[in-house]
Amino acid sequence: MTIKELLYKVPILATAGDMEAVINHLTLDSRNVGPGSLFIAVRGTVTDGHTFIDTAVRQGASAILCEEMPVNPEPAVTYVQVQDSAYTQGLIAATFYGHPSRKLNLVGVTGTNGKTSTATLLFRLFRALGYRVGLISTVQNQIDDTVIPATHTTPDVITTNALLTDMLKHGCTHCFMEVSSHAVVQQRIAGLHFAGGIFTNITHDHLDFHGTFDNYIRAKKGFFDQLPASAFALVNIDDKRGMVMLQNTAARKESFSLQTLATFKGKLLADSLFGLHMEIDGKEVWFKLIGRFNAYNILGVYGAAVLLGEDPEEVLTQLSGLMPPPGRFEQVVSDEQIVGIVDYAHTPDALQNVLETIDGLRQADEQIITIVGCGGNRDAAKRPIMAEIACKFSDKVILTSDNPRDEDPMAILEQMQAGVPPIDFKKTLTLPDRREAIQKAVSMANPHDIILVAGKGHETYQEINGVKHDFDDRQVLLEAFANVKSGSVDTP
Ligand SMILES: CC(=O)N[C@H]1[C@@H](OP(=O)(O)OP(=O)(O)OC[C@H]2O[C@@H](n3ccc(=O)[nH]c3=O)[C@H](O)[C@@H]2O)O[C@H](CO)[C@@H](O)[C@@H]1O[C@H](C)C(=O)N[C@@H](C)C(=O)N[C@H](CCC(=O)O)C(=O)O
Fold it and tell me: Of 47, 116, 468, which is best to mutate to test ligand 1, by the most ligand atoms within 8 angstroms of its C-beta?
């Protein structure tokens, strides 16, 4: 495709060089440039892509898209100046790949918690309903049975268009994707045509990136503002920001609720460690998912499926058979009936949801032992809050590391300790080594006690100083169950 064809409908400020130059590859990263590449220079959070234009040219780039023209452009290379290269990237990627998002039903899911569960449940539901389906999620991307490792919750828009193209080649009719607030702000969903958007909830998270809670809300809302009139915008109106999401959208406004009148109204009848019993649209159904937060996920998934034209009764039948996604309230039970629960809860709200759920389901003599940490190089404000929540609901708490990245693990843990109420000092232990923390919890547990290992969920690594070391909470729990003699009470 020529650069001129690629720029169809793109507002351009200036050009230099041959507009008939042929482009066979798009990239944001100078390290991936080769002959035929169009290098898109984007201003990032760490560095400015414009500083790599010369490198891209040396590596054979055919064209450069930028916001600022270089002082000495290379005559053999085509340069295009635009107002906003991050946004333009989305329009170009859609044209380059032939607008794949218009050729299937692309549904985006946004919200602080529940994105992965909702997108994954939709993916599994539509497969169970007989469709070929794609998934773009934090845990993994998937085209039917083929798993493609994920690097982001929402990839860059070039990668997304490439994934959607592969999905179409495999006959997919639907794709369910997570839409993170980072992605909205960084234009990673620009130019994508959505058939629908779902809002799960919004709570304190990512303030390191967005600065204020208002900015974070605005970022989420930006997704709904982008939806076309042909799409549906389905929001959880039990979250007080649900209606805000709908304010400026052109899409059809739809809602779901466990508490009030909504397009899709559900009622939670019973909640146990074995599943949920709900009434949806007047029908009683059992689900294998656990916890009130999953009742919301189920309702959102049900609503989206019905809005996509599926038969409500068939949707409920298929949904009732689905299991939780990996690392989402995943249970690992020892021979002695110590219940390990591995959950991705890494925000205050998610941790509170999981702990409230466990607290509501346990018997009076069953202890909750919580293992929790907070990531390095990320929102530090949540550290004391998460420790406080863990203490509020648990009989014992072990503060430990969760991807300290470039930070000193002990410094993160000290910030968490600041949230431990003095009355809870004696039930709290600090063990920076996560493996040791899990082993300690198992050694302290009695049969039927519940050990919550929070934060990593499906992740299979611990990131320390830029190196990802193999670490899987589920595996380490199993090893601890096998190695440590259960029943030996070792109170901190
Ligand atoms: C903070 C953040 O969101 N960063 C994302 C952002 O990178 P950046 O702005 O920091 O990029 P940069 O390093 O400043 O570089 C600027 C530009 O120069 C280019 N460059 C850079 C170096 C070089 O040698 N050559 C070159 O061309 C880069 O490709 C980039 O285009 O844009 C990149 C391209 O899209 C992303 O890969 C990158 O994600 C980083 C790796 C990341 O960790 N992001 C996280 C925070 C994130 O996005 N998380 C959300 C989920 C959040 C949640 O809900 O939990 C997600 O969607 O995954």
Answer: 47
User: Nearest C-alpha to atom 52 of ligand 1 is from which residue?
Assistant: 180
Question: What is this model's ipTM?
Answer: 0.95
Q: Which CATH number covers residue 61?
A: 3.40.1390.10
Instruction: Please list the residues that pair with 66 across neighbouring strands.
Output: 81
111 and 210 co-located in one domain: yes
Residues 197 and 308 reside in one and the same domain: yes
Q: How many domains does the chain have?
A: 3
Q: Separation of 103 CA from ligand 1 center, angstroms?
A: 28
Centre of ligand 1 to C-alpha 42, Å, is 10
Among 96, 111, 134, give the residue marking a domain's end.
96
| Full domain range(s) for residue 461 | 330-486
Element holding 286 (H helix, E strand): strand 283-287
Place of tokens 């560095």: 47
> Does 325 reside within a domain?
no
Amino acid at 62: S
Question: Which protein residue's CA is at the shortest distance from atom 18 of ligand 1?
Answer: 49
C-alpha to C-alpha distance for 382 and 236, rounded to whole angstroms: 24
Q: Which residue has its alpha carbon closest to ligand 1 atom 3?
A: 182
Q: Is the pTM of this model over 0.90?
A: no
**Please, are residues 124 and 307 in contact by the beta-carbon 8 Å criterion?**
no
From the number of C-beta atoms within 10 Å of its C-beta (0-12, 13-18, 19+), residue 467 rates as exposed
Q: Which residues does a 6 A CB cutoff place in the pocket of ligand 1?
A: 28-31, 42, 44-47, 49, 52, 152-154, 156, 180, 182-183, 186
The mean pLDDT values, 10 residues at a time, for the chain of 492 residues are 94 96 97 97 95 97 97 95 97 98 98 93 98 96 96 96 98 98 96 98 80 86 97 97 95 97 96 89 93 94 98 97 88 91 93 93 93 95 97 98 97 98 97 97 95 96 95 97 60 36
